[in-house]
Design goal:
Structural class: mainly alpha
Radius of gyration: 19 Å
Shape: elongated
Length: about 190
């Protein structure tokens, strides 16, 4: 196969994988991970289940691809988060309820033993807490105004972000997620 043909085939395969991941995100948002079937995802993208398995050999592989894609959407260049960027992330999340609902559903399901996303979320939270500790250290140094170290405050920051997402998903008319997160940052001493 000539080089140009190989490149075109690879590009088509990558595009198809991206289409499958988007469809899986939609199906999981509608039905939850356990209720989402490979057949439903395949049907949504016009493939047979066998065709889908060519791109993702297992449901678990597809799930990890969905979660990794969601994290890529939230990435900042060189991973350098700042408090103001966190507020922008919360504002951005408020514009994409389907993605946030899928993430929340998968997170909730992943706490059960043997769930295929458990290792992903465990590793993700370890990395997110470390990243939030770095944000807090850059803003406040070794002690926050209330006396906590960045490492002690980081899980609280993550809990506020995730907890606001759940409350907002349940009652978006009553919970202004970006405003509430801005209030939390003011409690920390942010302007």
């Amino acid at each position: 196969m000539p080089y140009g043909d190989a490149m075109a085939a690879r590009t088509r395969s990558e595009e198809r994988r991206a289409e499958i991941v988007r469809a899986a995100l939609e199906v999981i948002a509608e039905r939850g991970y356990r209720g989402a079937s490979l057949a439903a995802v395949a049907e949504r993208v016009g493939l047979t289940q066998q065709g889908l398995l060519h791109h993702f050999p297992t449901k678990e592989a597809l799930l990890v691809a969905v979660l990794a894609e969601r994290d890529r959407w939230d990435a900042v260049p060189d991973g350098a988060w700042r408090a103001d960027l966190l507020l922008q992330l919360v504002e951005y999340n408020a514009m994409r309820p389907g993605v946030i609902q899928t993430f929340a559903a998968l997170l909730g399901e992943s706490v059960t033993e043997g769930h295929p996303a458990r290792a992903f979320f465990t590793g993700r939270y370890t990395a997110v807490r470390a990243s939030m500790a770095a944000v807090l250290r850059a803003e406040y140094g070794e002690r926050l105004p209330g006396g906590l170290t960045p490492e002690r405050a980081a899980p609280l920051l993550v809990a506020v972000m995730d907890g606001l997402q759940y409350q907002w998903l349940l009652d978006p008319e009553s919970v202004d997620m970006p405003a509430a997160f801005g209030d939390f940052l003011r409690l920390l001493g942010e302007d």
